[in-house]
Design goal:
alpha/beta; seven-stranded mixed sheet
Length: 570
């Protein structure tokens, strides 16, 4: 058997490890990976050539599976409609009371303690940088729960993380370190595949790359920053996502904010999902294009917007739009939802618009092969005009990429500020991206199977954790298999209370409220990782159940199954 044949055989064996699963996607058996060798050195005894196929085969998805996935996408809205009216009314009243008390305290504070409001008043002819009304939310609401955010850590943010304890002597205005360090279970980081490590094959590759290439090129890629390592990594990214070419950017936020203005401009139309990330909103506004919004993940509303926009054309002149760009996310990180990509692709074929998909959270975390939302739904990635993603989550690195046709990427290299003015990605980050991606693709000779192990473990952990929360009666959001699992808290008082109770039990979580979410859907967002063990998840579930009883968060008690006592027996 020749080298090429051995390479193809190894590639297939690491990409498709099929095992029997239950209805939730969990693998049967106590140790689902005991039959998988820890190394694939026996499969790749010699250095093999890269397969000539530039676009990876798209796994087929049955019609029944696809219909089930699309049905799940519409379940959440029905779930939210079933929220008890009492919960909604008390949530609105709670926010109303907080705002009234905030204004009342400001009124009397300005009368009796005017020195505390000097920065909010005109001084020496200068207007205040921030008015009292603009800063009310930050000073009076966010300030009361600042201890739940920006908690400092030390060490590696893996399945567990070391948290630096702090306390506030002045009601969260300032903080002081106590000198103690707590090891907590990390349900807050985007370390989906567990590649954020200080030791292991990726860390070794990073060290080797720094010894060979240094730390950074100290230049933009348009000048002296276009290194061999950067070019090779861009080629790998393109092959990974199934595109002709790719452009790597050193900052994830800038990947959207600085590349979108190079794609559309005045006379163009952007139709954006109402829950798109702030970086997409910034990029759309910077572009100068007309922006219209459609209801979240609602393809019917998207089609209405398309028909109306095409029929009416540009404002005043009614000329045809130069371009129409539809912008969506593969996985919405605040909702844990997948975009309705198959139906959006059908609309693209029907109306001929350009499609921009942000895969910041889905790339590496979804699909049998970790190729993102296209892999998950069995969609050919060439059906998407612009594929964007970041390396911050599944790859344990930083920065992002834009992938598409060669003509598109060549255009961005000359016109995007992220390519012309921004610094080139540093060597350690490039090495981390390259090594982790090679492991996922099964191209690392010594660890070809580890990437697939991590993908399977993430799917197992995500489905297991979400299923147990629902069984306990919590109201969750998102689709099965999402590594982001939001649990609804509603009341503004319960948002900081949940975070503090989790910290008492040595669990780190992220709580989110308005303005990052709609005012009535404050939530805690659990981020699941392949580095979490079943014991970690069971411990977290046990503690979360206790907190749920304490804060009365089990809104679906009628659906509770007596399964919590059997968690450790699963």
């Amino acid at each position: 058997m020749g080298k090429g044949q051995r390479a193809v055989q190894a590639f297939k064996s690491t990409e498709f490890i099929e095992k029997p699963r239950d209805k939730d996607g969990l693998l049967f058996g106590e140790n689902p990976f005991k039959e998988v060798p820890s190394t694939s050195a026996s499969l790749l005894s010699e250095k093999s050539a890269t397969p000539a196929v530039t676009t990876p085969a798209v796994p087929t998805v049955s019609k029944e599976t696809l219909e089930a996935e699309l049905k799940d996408l519409s379940e959440e809205s029905k779930e939210l409609e079933a929220v008890p009216t009492f919960i909604l009314v008390t949530t609105y009243l709670s926010f109303l009371m907080l705002i009234v008390f905030a204004h009342t305290r400001d009124f009397f504070g300005k009368l009796f303690h005017p020195e505390q409001y000097l920065q909010l008043r005109e001084q020496n002819g200068y207007a205040p940088m921030v008015s009292d009304f603009e800063s009310l939310w930050t000073r009076r609401l966010y300030g009361r729960i600042r201890d739940c955010f920006n908690r400092p850590i030390t060490g590696v943010a893996g399945g567990h993380v070391n948290l630096l304890e702090r306390m506030s002597p002045d009601f969260n205005r300032t903080f002081e370190f106590t000198g103690r360090v707590r090891n907590v279970l990390n349900l807050a980081s985007y370390n989906y595949l567990g590649f954020a490590q200080s030791e292991g094959p990726c860390a070794d590759k990073v060290e080797e790359a720094m010894r060979e290439h240094g730390i950074t090129q100290a230049s933009t890629r348009a000048e002296a920053g276009c290194s061999k390592l950067l070019v090779e990594t861009e080629e790998m990214v393109a092959r990974f996502v199934g595109a002709e070419s790719a452009l790597i950017v050193s900052m994830g936020y800038a990947t959207n904010a600085l590349n979108m203005p190079a794609l559309v401009s005045k006379g163009c139309l952007i139709i954006s999902d109402e829950l798109n990330h702030s970086s997409l909103v910034s990029g759309a506004r910077l572009s100068g294009a007309t922006i219209r919004v459609f209801r979240h993940n609602n393809t019917r509303d998207l089609e209405k917007q398309l028909r109306r926009s095409i029929a009416q054309g540009q404002p005043r002149t009614h000329r045809p739009w130069k371009k129409i760009l539809v912008v969506v996310e593969g996985l919405y990180s605040m909702e844990g939802e997948f975009c309705n990509l198959p139906e959006i692709i059908e609309l693209r074929r029907k109306y001929g618009f350009y499609l921009y998909v942000d895969e910041a959270h889905s790339i590496g975390a979804l699909g049998k092969r970790g190729r993102g939302i296209c892999d998950h739904f069995g969609v050919d990635p060439r059906e998407v005009d612009v594929l964007m993603g970041t390396f911050t989550k599944s790859f344990g690195a930083a920065g992002g990429y834009v992938a598409g046709s060669k003509a598109l990427i060549d255009h961005l290299r000359l016109h995007s500020h992220s390519a012309v003015y921004a610094e080139a990605m540093s060597v350690p980050v490039l090495a981390q991206v390259s090594s982790s991606m090679r492991m996922i693709m099964g191209e690392d000779r010594e660890h070809a199977l580890e990437g697939q192990q991590r993908l399977d473990q993430l799917a197992i952990n995500s489905r297991y954790f979400a299923r147990r929360l629902v069984d306990m009666g919590f109201m969750t959001m998102g689709n099965p298999g999402s590594p982001v699992i939001p649990l609804l808290l509603f009341s503004p008082a319960k948002i900081p209370a949940f975070s503090r109770e989790c910290l008492k039990r040595n669990i780190a979580v992220v709580v989110v409220s308005y303005p990052a979410t709609p005012i009535i859907t404050g939530r805690v967002r659990f981020c699941i990782s392949a580095s979490h063990t079943r014991a970690d998840l069971d411990h977290a579930l046990e503690q979360i159940s206790e907190i749920g009883d304490l804060l009365m968060l089990k809104f679906h008690k009628d659906k509770v199954q007596p399964a919590l006592t059997h968690v450790k027996a699963d």
